[in-house]
Amino acid sequence: MPIRARARVNLAAIERNVARLRRELAGGARLCAVVKADGYGHGAAPSARAALAGGATALAVATAREAAELHSAGVDAPLLVMGAVSSDELPVAVAARAELVAWSERFVAEVAAIASHPTRIHVKLDTGLGRLGTRDGAQALRVAQLVVDHDPLLTLAGAMTHFATAEEDPEFVAHQLTTFAPFVAEVRSLKPGIVIHAANSAATLRHPESHFDLVRCGIAIYGCDPMHVDPEPRGLEPALELSSYIAAVKRAAVGDSAGYGRKFIASSETWIATIPIGYGDGIRRALSGQGEVLIGGRRYPIVGAVSMDNITVDLGPEALVREGEPATILGHNGGERQTAEQLAAAAGTINYEIVCGISARVPRTYHRDGEPA
After folding, report:
1. Which of the chain's ends, N or C, has fewer CB atoms near its CB within 10 Å?
2. pLDDT recorded at residue 2
3. Which residues have CB under 8 Å from 272's CB, separation 6+?
4. Comparing C-alpha atoms, which of 247, 227, 225 is closest to residue 237?
5. Per residue in 230-264, pLDDT tens?
6. What's the pTM value of the predicted model, to 2 decimals?
7. Which CATH superfamily is domain 240-372 in?
């Protein structure tokens, strides 16, 4: 029997995407591959290894647990935890030998109190994203000085910020860079050789002036478009294909419905296919009556409500497909392809949410251009 649902990840595509992004880098900048959220749904450890093989020199995650999982998997590379780390989570991150982000003296003191080995710290200035980091440049410098004061137990490794609009508003990017510049100058005088980093995937492609010493690429290494349009013109290859199969095909007469709530009622005779994949697998409910599925090289509309375990598609008055045939949600099928950007547009969201939302219920398999990885 066909596999109910499967995500196939091409690790060679991740390698090529990293190599392609590295060709954009200005001034000798290096690339840090962001593998948080289980590698944006692609699998953290396999994606990390592929990114390193493609030329990434460091990795980044969001949480202490993610760092611990990569450390336990034996992934050997500098590893930065970019997110907030609570007092309870801190020992996990330190044990994983992760580098940490600080913006308060209290946090630096906590790290110094438990560190059993030299721990690298990056100080974050909030230049406009308005989330983590301090907006106060003087405060950021005090944090950096406190890290230096704890040398050699702590090492001031980096200074960073994060863009709010790199994919859409170059004027605000320029504003953030202008805000960041005085802090960069002062922290470099405090610790020569410190690594400066700001750029995400979109900034890597659009704003070479933001590359500094390191860029942090996430969505683009998986072959998704940071500008949410189409990865192909940007030379990016989607690494993940999501597929299921046709579990049932049945005739629908006028007035027959499909799915919970009878959101679809046939206005003419048609055929309905049921595909055993649903929001429990990551198919967003917002795709009810909106998205499409590829079957036999053709596009068919999702009709009715997306349920936890199934979706239904309208095959039209002539059923040209049979039970057991593959159904592609993401990827190529015949001469057609469906991207995360297309699904995101149909669901009113972004490509990040499409790939990150593929649940653990869907098994991942790995290959390199068709050969088992």
Report:
1. N
2. 75
3. 249, 250, 251, 252, 258, 266, 303, 312, 313, 314, 315
4. 225
5. 999 999 999 999 999 999 999 999 999 999 999 99
6. 0.96
7. Lyase, Ornithine Decarboxylase; Chain A, domain 1 (2.40.37.10)
